[in-house]
Each structure stands twice: as C-alpha cells, then as structure tokens.
Amino acid sequence: IYKNENVYINENQYFGNIKKDIWEYYIGGYQPAQKYLKDRKGRKLSLDEIDQYQRIIKVLSETIKIVDEINF
Predict the structure, then answer these.
(1) SS3 letters for the chain?
(2) Does position 72 have pLDDT exceeding 90, yes or no?
(3) What's the confidence (pLDDT) of residue 45?
(4) Is 57 exposed, middle or buried (0-12, 13-18, 19+ CB in 10 A)?
(5) What's CA 60's distance to the chain center, in Å?
(6) Count of CB atoms within 10 A of residue 7's CB?
(7) Which tens digit of pLDDT belongs to each residue from 36-63?
(8) Which residues lie below 8 Å from residue 47, measured CB to CB, with a gap of 6+?
(9) Are the C-beta atoms of residues 53 and 36 closer than 8 Å to each other?
(10) Mean pLDDT throughout 3-32?
(11) Which of 15, 22, 43, 47 could crosslink 7 through cysteines, CB 3.0-4.6 Å?
(12) What's the mean per-residue pLDDT of the chain?
C-alpha cells in the first residue's frame, strides 16, 4: 500500500521516502516498484530482497532524472 511516500509491506513495516513518480513509473508496461512487491506478496522478504528493492528504487529515481534531462 502506498501512502504519504511510504510503501507498506505490512501494518508495521514500510519503505520510506519513495516519491509518487517512482512508485507509478512504467517501464515496458510494468511498474517495477509495484511489481517487485506484488510478486512476493504473502511472504517475508529476505535481507537480500530488501536490498534489491532499495536498489530498484534508486535506479528508478536515477532513470527518471535522466529521462527528464533528455526531454528537457
């Protein structure tokens, strides 16, 4: 669940400071920030999966910046 720049993975745990444009960004018909978590729904994320998700968010952020520069 996305709320106030937080992506909740359960009632108590969330990834914070995720901008809406990152959460909603599409690549090839998919929203990677959402799809990664949806593909793991109902399971406990491992530390490696948490690290991977944080890297995905960082890459999406940088991708958006680059695309904005190109389109400027």
Answers:
(1) CEECCEEECCCCCEECCCCHHHHHCCECCECHHHHHHHCCCCCCCCHHHHHHHHHHHHHHHHHHHHHHHHHC
(2) no
(3) 94
(4) buried
(5) 8
(6) 20
(7) 999 999 999 999 999 999 999 999 999 9
(8) none
(9) yes
(10) 95
(11) 15
(12) 95
Confidence (pLDDT) at 37:
97
- For the CA atoms of 66, 36, 4, 25, what is the dihedral angle to 10 degrees? 30
5 closest CA partner among 24, 27, 30: 24
CA distance 35 to 28: 12
Which tokens hold the place of 13? Answer: 């745990």
Q: Token pair of 37, please?
A: 């978590």
pLDDT at residue 11 is higher than 90: no
- Rounded to whole angstroms, the Cα distance separating 24 from 22 reads 5
Q: Rounded to whole angstroms, how far apart are CA atoms 37 and 56?
A: 11
**What is the model's pTM?**
0.90
